[in-house]
Structure formats: structure tokens, C-alpha cells
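Checked the freezer inventory, then went back to the computational side. Two predictions to log before the end of the day. The first one is the construct we discussed on Monday; recording sequence and C-alpha cells without edits.
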Amino acid sequence: MDIIQKIRNSEADLTESERKVCRKILEDPSIVTMYTISQIAMMADTSTAAVLRFCQRLGCKGYKDFRYEVMNWLRANENKDGHRDIVTSVAAAYAAAIEELGGLDRASLKLLCDDILSSEKTVVLGRMRTSTAAEKLRMNLTGLGITALSGADTLAFQHLLYIINEKTAVIMFSTTGEITDQLEFLKQQKEQSQRIWLVTPARKAKMSAWADHTIVIPAVKSGTTFAGSQTVMMAFADILTALLEDISCAGE
């Protein structure tokens, strides 16, 4: 019996907190390859202990063994579906996600552009791997002559609070949309600006409660650890930059 079938068969015997983990993983097994045990716990709105218990109920020693089993299942199913190698698989996953960007709501994008162009400055935030997308957008905006700053960790976020005000547009990139250790910062930021945007692939992002607008971008569904939504965020940054340039040129 493969690991996914084991998960399905175990659901009735799980506690409520473990069932949350079960549902989240069955929704998209590939998240196990991309996120740590603590991130999975946050996404499932439960504890790391619940995730560990869930893994052990399936006969795994811990999350590492469980992750290995899921990765084997993903590889096996990729081979069944089309006998594609890893290069084709990752490329196809990215191509599908990038193509979905074409379906983003145009009204929301226009409103985001308006917020940026009518603000005195734009602050772009992203932690860990999303910091690359944040820095790319900052450089793109600077290239258009728009005053922009970026932050890549919680310390930088706290420093940026000193310059965020009602005339500041804030764009936050997040892969999970979880608030974790950012709650106090998000509260203070919300008090200082009403132009806060969240860009995330998480459809039920908790951070949305602390943003004025949320743009949900496509998620990259792949069986490899190294494929993620950061590349889609960078493509989004270029799309947004192109829109801003087009609006600016039209206004001249």
C-alpha cells in the first residue's frame, strides 16, 4: 500500500488536529517536498507535535521518513502519468503556473498600480526565499523612477516601520501566508498604512487579515523540493512592472 492510500485509510482514526494535517496533505501532497514540519503545521493550523504524531501513525519514524515516502510516491506517479524525467516535470510545473498568471484579475492589478503610483514610496517585503522576489520588484520599481525599499527579514521589517505611513504602499510576498512571529509587526503596519497588499499562492492566507488586498498567484505543483512559488512571484514582479510602465507612458 502506498503512502497516499495509507493517509486516506487512516483519516477516520485520527484526532482532529491530525486530521487537519491529513486534509492539507491530501489536498496537495507536493507541499511535503517544499516545506518544513513547522511550516506544514502552520498551513494546517495545528502544531508540529500533531504533524509528528500523524507521521508516526502512518508507520514513519518522523517527518523526514514521511517526506521520503511522499517524494517516492510523487516520482512514481509522474512516471505513470507520462514517463517524464525530472527536467520535463519541473519545467512543466513552472510553465503551467506561469501560464495561469494570465488569468489574474485585471481590476486588482490596476488598483495595485494606482496605489503604487499615488504613494510617496513603496515598501516590498519578503523573507527567506521570497526575499529574492521582493528585491527584484524593488529594483524594477527603482528602474521606473519609483521610490522603493525592500526588507528581507524581521529585523529589517521593524526598521521599515519607522518610514511606513498613510502615503506608503506596502507589498508583502509570502509562500504560506502564515503570520507566525510576524503578528506584532503586521498589527503596527496595519495601523500606519491602508495600502497593504499580500501576494501569495495560499488561498486561505492568515496574513490576509492584516492586508487591505490579497492577490492569489498560481502555486507550483511539483514533486521536487527545489521547485516553488518564488519563481512565479518574480514573474509577477515583471508583469506588475510592465503594467506600471504602460500606465505611466499612457499618462504622458
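The second is the one RB wanted added to the comparison set:
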Amino acid sequence: MTTTPAITTQLGQQGLGQQPWWVEQWMELINSFRYKKRLERAWDYARSGNVLSIRFEGRRVHARVQGTEKDPYKVKLWLDVLNDEDWGFVLEALSQKTRWSAQLLAGIMPQDIERAFAASGKRLFPFKLQEVRSECSCPDKANPCKHISAVYYLMGDRFSEDPFVLFQLRGRTRSQLLGDLALRRREGAAQGQAAHAPHPTHGAILDPTRWWRYDAALDPDLVVITPALEGESGLEGAGPLPLAEEPRFPDANSLFLKRLQAQGVVMAQGAMAEAMATGSAAAAPADA
């Protein structure tokens, strides 16, 4: 089990002050809680040092908060983690944008980071307070209680120092995330080099006379010859022919077209018979 260094457990007299956008988004979750008096008490706890310790154990946050009892209460806080398949989509999206990787390395949460998580159908930031799972050993049945809320505030302070804390809650530590990103970028670079490798020149480029030939043998099983269906002959596809009319012979055009169609049928039947005979001859040695 991976344990990270302890997190600061007391806010300064000025509270959180001006914070990056990702901290403000986290704070909006707890500030949306409707029991404002409880939040005021939690704020006092966070500023007065009542939170005795906060530490990560794997993907969960464990804290000890001193309440009105002699023994401190135990608080647990966690988010739903992304599985390996989900993280694969996220990492693929992150590796496509150098800016995202550069900002994370600089300790800055990209403003459009959720676009990378959208590829997996998941989110980095919880959408509502209920998505942040929490437990407290105090007798208060409400969740979050003032002890959990105090830890919320201090977690926001921690986010301002290290945005990777939120990634850890989703299942990837800083070292894991950056290591996976580096690996994917190396693989992408290698694939890019392979894609730009020169292709061998086709013989037809060097010999244009080959453009009009096809010397390879055709597999008879792959060639299917069928007569044209009604409406698929060349004459029917061409539409009305612009023939000059002769008033003395008003039926000349229609008679000509009928004879032309009849001749086409005869030619098509002859071509069909020849093709079938050729196919039979080619298949005979194999059947012998």
C-alpha cells in the first residue's frame, strides 16, 4: 500500500484566499451543502487545528479530527476510481495534446482537462457532493458532518499545491500518470517515424505501358458472370437516343431501337456463352 506524506492540517488566518480554478471547483461542492451552520463550524475546525492528521493510503484519504470527545474521530474520504480501460482512453487523449502534459508537469490543471476524461465517459471532478464518498466515526448521522467538511476544506488547500492529488483519488498517482504519458508519447513518436518510412515504387510508375494491362490470373471462384437484369442494359441506361425524325416513316425510330436492342441481346448471350465456356475450360484441369 502506497502512503504519501501528511497533508497540512491547518489553514492560515486568511483561509484559502485566492485559489486556482480547480480548487474553487472543489470548494463549490462543499459550499453547496445546505446546512450552513455546520459548514461554519467545519471552517473553524479547519482553521483551529482540530484536524490532527490527513494522509493518503492508496486511493483513500484518512484523517483524524478532534471533536468534543476525548478521542479524535476517524474520517475516510474517497472517489470512485477509473478502471484500466477508462484510464487507457484518458491517457490516449492526454498524449495527443502536448499542452496538457506540459501544464500538468508545471503543476497547473488544464482548464479543459475534462475533455480528456470525456473520451472514457467519466469525469475527473465530481459533479455533485454525493459523488465524494465519506465516512466519519462520530455519532452525527448527517453526511458530510462538520469533521468530514473540515477535511474537505483542507483537501482543497492541498489541491492548490498539487493538482495530481485529484488524479490519485481517481486511481493514478503522479508518478504513474507521468510515466504512462511518457510511454505513450514514445510509442506515438515511433509510430510516426514508421508511418513516414518511404514506400517501394510500384512498377507501373516506372513503366506506364503497364497501366493498361492486367497480367495476373483471376481466380474463377471469385468471378461471377450473370446476365443483365431488366433495366440494366447499356441502351436502357443511356436513355432516349437523339435520332432525327423522318415524317414519311414515323415508325422508323422505334423500329431501329427494337432491332438495336435485339442485337444487343444476341451479343450479350454470345459473350455469356463464351465466358462460361472459358470458365469451364479453366476449371477442367482442377476437376480431373
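For RB: The longest strand covers residues 51-57. The chain has two domains: 21-191, 219-283. Let me know if you want it refolded.
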